[in-house]
């Protein structure tokens, strides 16, 4: 855990009972002295429906933008070809 200090910003708790606070103070202890409980998640996202819709809309707009850029490149290639032959 000492080796991980450069990566710890807000504090950390190790499974063997050691704690490091955000200010760098650390406490060595045993697992029995600390009662730490970690939440169990179901893995289901509880984002609001509006956020999910916005993400879906953003993906669709990015896809449309990519298709539009491909179309523009094709049109520019055709235009330059016509200008060259004219």
TrEMBL record:
Alphabetic keyword roster: Coiled coil
Lineage of origin: Eukaryota, Viridiplantae, Streptophyta, Embryophyta, Tracheophyta
Organism domain of life: Eukaryota
Protein name, as recorded: Uncharacterized protein
Keyword Coiled coil appears in the UniProt entry: yes
Coiled-coil intervals, chain numbering: 51-78
Keyword check for Coiled coil: yes
């Amino acid at each position: 855990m000492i080796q991980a200090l450069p990566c710890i910003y807000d504090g950390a708790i190790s499974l063997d009972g050691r704690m490091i606070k955000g200010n760098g103070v650390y406490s060595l202890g045993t697992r029995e002295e600390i009662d730490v409980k970690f939440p169990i998640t179901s893995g289901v996202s509880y984002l609001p429906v509006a956020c999910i819709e916005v993400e879906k809309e953003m993906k669709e707009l990015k896809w449309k933008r990519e298709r539009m850029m491909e179309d523009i490149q094709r049109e520019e290639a055709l235009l330059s070809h016509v200008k060259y032959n004219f």
